[in-house]
Amino acid sequence: MNEPAARKHASERYSQMTTKIPKRSPAGKGVGRQPAERAWLLAFGAHPDDVEFGCGAVIARETAAGRRAHLVVCSRGESGTNGTPAIRTREARAAAEALGATIEFLDLGGDAHFEVSVRRVLQLAAIVRRVRPAVLLAPTTVENQHPDHAKLGHMVRDAARLARYGGVKELKRLAPHAVEQVLSYAVTPDAEPAAGARILLDVSPPDVVAAWTCAMEAHASQLKTRNYVELQLARARLNGLRAGVEHAVPLFAADAIVVDSIAALGRGARRF
Ligand SMILES: [Zn+2]
Description:
Layout: H1 5-13, E1 41-45, H2 50-64, E2 69-73, H3 85-99, E3 102-105, H4 118-131, E4 135-139, H5 147-164, E5 181-185, E6 198-202, H6 206-217, H7 228-243, E7 248-253
Parallel strand pairs: 1-2, 1-4, 2-3, 4-5
Antiparallel strand pairs: 5-7, 6-7
The structure holds zinc ion.
């Protein structure tokens, strides 16, 4: 599938960030990496496994193409039924390693305690200014199985705005930064917005599916009661069948996408 022109443009502009790509290694061997100073793609997740299950294939696809990706996990999954914060932190680091991404953890008040506030939005905006990504990934704002997901989705959108505003006094130490795209991912099918166009990213290359599967399986503590790996692979396969490719992952644009020509839009997904 062709990339929209805006993303191609962003890729070119940020090509200088592609020189130090973390090497992939099997999940479980990751020892964690230092937070990225800069990355082309910045993905926020409320809990240690959200990015991996919701859009891990997108991360793997972009790092395989040589673009740097950085993950920010906004809790340690403290309120989860399974897994301790220490176990979940280890699992997330191993998963990031499998995706070829860097990772850091941020405290937004703790799992199940997120509240939308200016203070928290400023914490997120400071990271956006530091990492200076072209593309931001955040959970959708659709209410679903965990209240933190939609709240984080709202806060990341606001953070993208505050990161751009030059006069925000709390952020003065960091230069303003305007991201080119804010895209949302759905942690589960229930979190997909019912209305509006979706972008389907073709994630069919076998090494991408393998890295994604490896990253999801790294969250072993979360797989004891539900087969989330199969749920996500089946969802990607269904989206792929609809689009005429092997596997595809849906993303949702917060704003209208600008292209130089309609030729850059690729093709529609309708196959049935
Ligand atoms: Zn979650």
